[in-house]
């Protein structure tokens, strides 16, 4: 054990921190792992034990202080690509059967949907283009 260089121990430490990173998906462990790699580089360049620990601590803390808030912000943002029902809102559809406040049918995205009007007094005849405002269950609300 005494004949193993310090940089090898740092790389073993980096791997030991990387394994739980994969298992738990905690990005902080990855940042500590990068800090251990920085400690290994310092050891490989001939830095003393104190300098290696300082480099490990500075790199790890800097990554946690800078990268973690960015990662948290990215997780909190909603995806730009709308999917499911959200993707249908704002789309145009063609009236297949007369649509009024009590119901009707439209062709939306290549499929026939039940629909009703947003405005109780509005009536749309077959062939007319309408805009989907909302989806309630399996019914499109149009205007």
Structure overview:
With 143 residues, this protein is of the alpha+beta class. It has two domains: 6-76, no CATH class; 85-142, Nucleic acid-binding proteins (OB fold (Dihydrolipoamide Acetyltransferase, E2P), Beta Barrel), CATH 2.40.50.140. Helix content is 48%, strand content 24%. It contains four helices and five strands. It has helices at 6-24, 27-44, 49-76, 85-88, and strands at residues 92-100, 103-108, 111-117, 129-136, 139-142. The chain has a five-stranded mixed beta barrel. A hairpin with a 2-residue loop joins strand 4 and strand 5. Helix 1 packs antiparallel against helix 2 (27-44) and helix 2 (27-44) packs antiparallel against helix 3 (49-76). The termini are far apart. InterPro entries: Membrane_assoc_protease (IPR052165), NA-bd_OB-fold (IPR012340), NfeD-like_C (IPR002810). It is a multi-pass membrane protein. It comes from Streptomyces kunmingensis. The chain crosses the membrane at residues 7-26, 46-67.
